[in-house]
Amino acid sequence: MDPRSPSRRQILRTSSFSLGAVAASWLLRRDGALAESAGLAKPIIGETFDVLPKAPPKPPQARAMISMYMLGGPSQIDLFDPKPELVKRNGQTFDGDLKFDNAAQASREIMGPPWAFHRRGQCGMELSELLPHLGTIADDITLIRSMRTGSNNHVPSNFALTTGAPVHGRPVLGSWLLKSLGSASQNLPAYVALTDPRGLPQEGSENWSQGKLPAVFQGTVVRPAEPRIFNLEAPAHLRGGPQCAQLELLERLNRAHLAEHPGESDLEARLASYGLAARMQDAAREAFDISAEPESIKKMYGVDQPGTRDYATRCLIARRLVERGVRFVQIFCAGQNWDHHGAILTELPNRCGEIDQPAAALVRDLKQRGMLDSTVVHWGGEMGRLPVIQFRSGASDRKNVGRDHNTYGFSQWVAGGGFRGGYVHGATDEFGHHAVEGTVHHYDWLATVLHLFGLDHEALRFRVGPREIKLVEESEARVVRELLA
Amino acid sequence: MEVQRRLPLNMLATFDQPEMTPNCHRRRQTTVATQALWFLNDQESADAADALARAAMAEAGDAGGRLAALYARLFAAPPSGEEREACGAFLAAQEAHFAADPDADAAHRALSALCQVLMASNRFLYLD
Question: Are A222 and A194 in contact (CB under 8 A)?
């Protein structure tokens, strides 16, 4: 046999197909690309799942969400949550309780923010000078200063905020939204993850994983550089008719196979993936191509500047995707590159410089297109940082110092989709350490987002074998109505 | 092949090469349309199908024999009557289509297109 012909075992080793779930012969038949004539549409045994649009139980305020996820933990103390007490007691010893992630480098030396805060917008929201562009949209955002997960490391706190509990393997928010609402776009993946060219986020694809929900609800990651999606063009001789015939035969064979393996939702997922792939060949090229955007728009995002180009491009793509009906878009940073245990004086300004202008432009652009009211924009990480110095390492200056983890009180901002503009919610103690007023726990945050999409966090459940899984497990979870317009 | 841990190769990334920072404690899997696009349109996939078609043509001279050879290699089983009918109709239609191009080996192209379908099928990719 020709060595180029892969064996079944080789294919299985290099690809990972044993997944998921989904359903959707409608996908293949929808565009007439695949014929009824094949006589395929046998009912599948058991419940089937798809991403066709579904109405939520209550009228929704939000229809789509873009999450700019700043993994690592942006310092609320230096960006969002000014504390005169820290400035006053800068250099003194902190005498309260502290929980460190890195005890070996820990100190109790208070470090006030080295950057100035200014009142911005009509609302007078106080924001750091490191985020000048955010200040220009202060009246459109809700700044939450009282986030709390209480799981003091990155992975658990990340999963608490995105899956409802600080453990691996649960479905993320985006997957729950797809399950409940489907997608207005049948030609693009309903849930798209845009990653950083410098690397995947910490925990990789688990950040867009459907957990135990059917695999049709998982996020699709695209390449972090052009071309964002490979293989959108069929080989010349297969284009058109032959490829349609291939897809038709493939569906017929796969349906027959599925009939012999009822309830295997991963098989259905692959069926659906071929239908979407066929339609994406046209739609995706257009959606991911920002070249036709006016220069003024590209400039507003910062596509024209080397420092902001990448993040600006991804923010612009996110807007184009939502415009075309995509339900959920996540824009990630590499690894957890807001994790400033050291060198916060240089690294925090670097991170802010990359994202500040694009993030603000995204909100402004959505607003000028009339899309902001129905699109939740989220900007935040999985934690904040401590008011004291980490990594003194014997040096007398603060050139290389940083701040350790803090999941007991941190900040994030949201805009659009029914959130209240120009509003600061909640407060931390006088050191910016623990949320003490209007605390928004991870489960409150998730319940609130679901509410804006017309969903009830109590009712949102999915049966897996003998038990039910929920996004929001805590009985004390509440929709934080103060945050809503 | 040199692979940088933080920057997975494109093809491997499409098929869930794990994140290796700081280490891989779990393999994760996805089933998404970008993978279907690989099977449909990638040169690698087309080359593998071409090679498999050539091998089947070397084994048998007629469509029925070639199909049996493919099924034996891929599924270790003969095609059912329904599969013979579906694949046979596909081959005949595609061969007629490709015959319009005088430079093409229509029989090979049609068989290669079939090989691509069979190798992309769930029966081939999932072990029972």
Answer: yes
pLDDT in tens, A181-226: 998 888 999 999 999 999 889 988 899 999 888 888 889 999 898 8
Confidence of residue A132 (pLDDT cuts 50, 70, 90): very high
Q: Residue A277 to residues A165, A284, A411, B121, B125: CA-CA distances in angstroms? A: 33, 9, 39, 15, 18
Torsion angle defined by CA atoms of residues A204, A209, A212 and A215, in that order, rounded to the nearest 10 degrees: -120
Q: What kind and span of H or E run contains A245?
A: helix A241-260
pLDDT category at A5 given cuts 50, 70, 90 is low
The stretch A89-114 carries a mean pLDDT of: 93
- Report the C-alpha gap between A76 and A144 in whole angstroms: 10
How would residue A21 be classed by pLDDT, with cut points 50, 70 and 90? Answer: very low
R_g over Cα of chain B = 18
Tokens encoding A191: 């849930």
Model-level pTM?
0.86
Residues 190-209 in A contacting B (C-alpha not used; CB under 8 Å): 198-200, 202-206, 209
For residues A244 and A203, give the distance between their C-alpha atoms in angstroms, rounded to a whole number: 37
Under a CB-based contact definition with an 8 Å cutoff, are residues A209 and A171 in contact? Answer: yes
- Please state, in angstroms and rounded to a whole number, the distance separating the CA atoms of residues A126 and A120: 6
CA dist A405 to A45, A143, A338, A385, A395, Å? Answer: 49, 20, 11, 5, 21
> Which of B11, B21, B28, B31 to mutate to test binding with chain A, by most A CBs within 10 Å of its CB?
B31
CA distance A337 to A334: 6
Tell me the β-bridge partners of A402: A390
Parallel/antiparallel/unpaired status of strands A467-470 and A461-464: antiparallel
* Cα A331 from Cα A432, distance rounded (Å): 27
Distance separating alpha carbons of residues A97 and A157, to the nearest angstrom: 20
Helix-helix angle B33-41:A241-260, to 10 degrees: 120
What is the rounded CA–CA span in Å between residue A277 and residue A445?
34
**Phi, psi (5° rounding) for residue A466?**
-80, -10
Mean per-residue pLDDT over chain A, rounded? 88
What is the per-residue burial (b if ≥16 Cβ within 10 Å, else e) of A430-450? ebbbbbeebbbbbbbbbbbbb
Give the mean model confidence (pLDDT) for residues A301-318. Answer: 98
A261 to chain B: closest CA residue: B128
pLDDT digits (tens, 9 = 90+) for B31-81: 888 889 999 999 889 999 999 999 999 999 999 999 999 999 999 999 999
Chain B closest CA to A17's CA: distance in Å?
Answer: 6
A178, A220, A250, A268: best to mutate for the B interface, most B CBs within 10 A? A250
Q: Which residues pair with A125 in a beta bridge?
A: A120
The one-letter amino acid code at A366 reads L
Q: Return the exposure string of B68-79: e unless at least 16 CB atoms fall within 10 Å of the residue's CB, then b.
A: bbbbebbeeeeb
| Positive/negative CA dihedral, B59, B65, B71, B77 | negative
For A208, which residue in chain B has the nearest alpha carbon?
B30
Contacts of B120 in chain A (CB under 8 A): 250, 274
